[in-house]
């Protein structure tokens, strides 16, 4: 067991290409073998799928991207809505730490003041906003991953795959946050300003009347600050953790694992990625919560007022929420792919052309 953990620790998801080759057992190499990017390859090891299974569409086709977007809607919309009570308490701890002193105290105070129904405040903007975000996050991630892979070529896409995951996820989240921002602003108003509004139907017109469209998008820059690092960690860490689990922990190749066993690996890798996501994105999340509650404040002013200690309020609640959330999202997303019989590429392997350059084939 401990040897498996040690292997995982060494298999960190941010290896540079020459370190990656050394990690793959090619320690005799003195320089990176990658030449200029070759011609685009549609059928790459990074996107390879088992030929034994009959898929409903081709990898990288329009139908593939649409169904991936649908998977993102289902995974993000349902999970975020299910965790609305925890998110509500976390937001209140961030904007009023004197009153809501901890996660358990936060639930107790909320139940006394608003009752059980109060824990569901903000469910409508949460469901709509994060469904739209999931559509863009997962759908565009697949689009950008294929686009950037083809730009790099087969060999460089393998050597620089962590950078590829980071770039594709950052590009996707940029658009996802634009879709999320209006509903996130309404949700925070409903959850953190008692008496302001109880429903999205009440909150949206009131916000527009008071501040115009600015009310819905003034938090988009802090959202980028929070969500882009979060999503980069979410996708890159997940992809590399899955690769490491199959290489060092799972006792048999992925091709020999059942669908259920593969989904268990997906869940475990998702939870590991979620813990890191929560830590990376929490300070910006605190700024977003306070910024959407207050009028006339800027992100820099809120950050200065909160201070170093203040931006970490509610971290424990966020780790629980985001760890569970990320694991469930990946599990649901992968389950949707299984249901629709979409191509699910195995962990990437070194291309044959690169093996030949390195003298690894006869």
From TrEMBL:
Protein's membrane topology: Multi-pass membrane protein
Transmembrane parts of this sequence: 263-284, 315-333
Listed name of the protein: Solute carrier family 25 member 3
Lineage: Eukaryota, Metazoa, Chordata, Craniata, Vertebrata
Entries under InterPro entries matching the protein: MCP_dom_sf, MCP_transmembrane, SLC25A3/Pic2/Mir1-like
Matching PROSITE patterns: SOLCAR (PS50920)
Function: Inorganic ion transporter that transports phosphate or copper ions across the mitochondrial inner membrane into the matrix compartment. Mediates proton-coupled symport of phosphate ions necessary for mitochondrial oxidative phosphorylation of ADP to ATP. Transports copper ions probably in the form of anionic copper(I) complexes to maintain mitochondrial matrix copper pool and to supply copper for cytochrome C oxidase complex assembly. May also play a role in regulation of the mitochondrial permeability transition pore (mPTP).
Top-level taxon of the source organism: Eukaryota
Gene: SLC25A3
GO biological process per UniProt: mitochondrial phosphate ion transmembrane transport
Keywords, ordered alphabetically: Membrane, Mitochondrion, Mitochondrion inner membrane, Repeat, Transit peptide, Transmembrane, Transmembrane helix, Transport
Source organism of the structure: Zalophus californianus
